[in-house]
Design brief:
Largest sheet of chain A: 6 strands, antiparallel, barrel
Shape of chain B: globular
Largest sheet of chain B: 6 strands, antiparallel
Number of helices of chain A: 1
Distance between the termini of chain B: 21 Å
Strand content of chain B: 15-25%
Number of strands of chain B: 6
CATH topology of chain B: Heat Shock Protein 90
Order of helices and strands of chain B: EHHEEHHEEEH
Number of domains of chain A: 1
Shape of chain A: globular
Number of helices of chain B: 5
CATH architecture of chain B: 2-Layer Sandwich
Helix content of chain B: 25-40%
CATH class of chain A: Mainly Beta
Number of strands of chain A: 6
CATH superfamily of chain B: Histidine kinase-like ATPase, C-terminal domain
Low-confidence stretches of chain A: none
Oligomer: heterodimer
CATH class of chain B: Alpha Beta
Strand content of chain A: 35-45%
Radius of gyration of chain B: 17 Å
Number of domains of chain B: 1
Structural class of chain A: mainly beta
Strand order of the largest sheet of chain B: 1-2-3-6-4-5
Low-confidence stretches of chain B: 170-179
Largest interface: A-B, 27 and 27 residues
Mean pLDDT of chain A: 87
CATH superfamily of chain A: predicted glycosyltransferase like domains
CATH architecture of chain A: Beta Barrel
Radius of gyration of chain A: 13 Å
């Protein structure tokens, strides 16, 4: 599997994500320190190399306020149900948002405050 | 599986459970090959569980949500039973009877719903389930587990039943349609 070759292993996650410029809802279904997979139920006008911005809503960790992140599209995976973008983090708008993404990754990696 | 066996996995999900544990538990379940990607099946179930957990938390309902996954007669059958009080289907951005393949996710109703809920709710859990599974059934239950129309304060919970044919068992609509 391709994911096994990654330096940063991706972990399953569940966070809502809204494509900012078109307000299209989607989901972050896995993520790592370096990127994430964002899945949409509708066609997304994005190709490999494009830069997208998503608003992340992490409802299961209330300490993470909604934040935006810019992602470079590295893969487009379409099937009959989902249009998924494999992405790499391009840059994060400000340090607080960088921390928020870090907390999100830590949360789903199980390295943050597990009950 | 020869299509005649029936096997069930039952999970009880505490509404206060750490959601990561819910994800990991679902990841650990081996979903038999079905006509859609198993990851999509897991995600559709996760999305419905997320709705149930939210409903329990909003209502302060401590009882567990039950999730059953059964293989029977060449089909994967999933049931989710919660005590979240049901919900007003009229507030969804579509009708439960609508064919999901005909729904327009760009519709004003969807956009209005998502905006009204600050994008914390997409109104897509049932839509995702209907797109993923061949069959979808939703019933509201009263305090004796009897089906009822939704009535605020009276409806106790929701029972959702989903099914999809396993590959190679002729159990899917798709396979039957192709014969």
């Amino acid at each position: 599997m391709e994911s096994e070759k990654r330096k940063d292993p991706r972990v399953p996650s569940y966070a809502k994500a809204v494509l900012v410029d078109r307000q299209i809802p989607g989901y972050i279904r896995d993520l790592s320190r370096s990127g994430c997979q964002v899945a949409f139920m509708q066609q997304i006008p994005a190709v490999v190399g494009d830069l997208i911005t998503i608003q992340v809503i992490a409802e299961h960790d209330p300490s993470i306020v909604p934040f935006q992140v810019r992602l470079r599209v590295r893969r487009v995976i379409d099937d009959a149900l989902w249009h998924s973008l494999g992405t790499q983090i391009e840059s994060i708008f400000d340090p607080e948002e960088a921390q928020a993404f870090d907390r999100l990754v830590s949360y789903y990696s199980g390295t943050a405050g597990e009950k | 599986m020869d299509g005649k066996q029936s096997r069930t996995i039952r999970l009880s999900v505490n509404p206060q459970a750490d959601f990561r544990q819910v994800i990991r538990t679902l990841e650990a379940i081996v979903i038999p090959p079905v006509r859609v990607n198993e990851e999509h099946v897991r995600f559709a179930v996760l999305e419905l569980l997320n709705n149930s957990i939210r409903a329990h938390k909003e209502k302060g309902e401590p009882r567990d949500i039950s999730l059953d996954l059964t293989i029977s007669d060449g089909r994967l059958v999933v049931t989710i039973r919660d005590f979240g009080g049901g919900f007003d289907t009229g507030k969804l951005p579509y009708s439960l009877e609508d064919d999901p393949s005909q729904l327009d996710l760009h519709s004003a109703a969807f956009e209005e719903y998502q905006r009204r809920n600050g994008f914390k709710r997409f109104g897509m859990g049932i839509y995702v389930a209907k797109k993923t599974f061949d069959e979808f059934r939703l019933v509201f239950l009263d305090d004796r587990d009897q089906p009822m129309s939704w009535r605020p304060g009276e409806t106790v919970g929701t029972l959702i039943t989903l099914s999809v044919g396993t590959r190679g068992n002729g159990g899917s609509r798709e396979a039957e349609g192709g014969k």
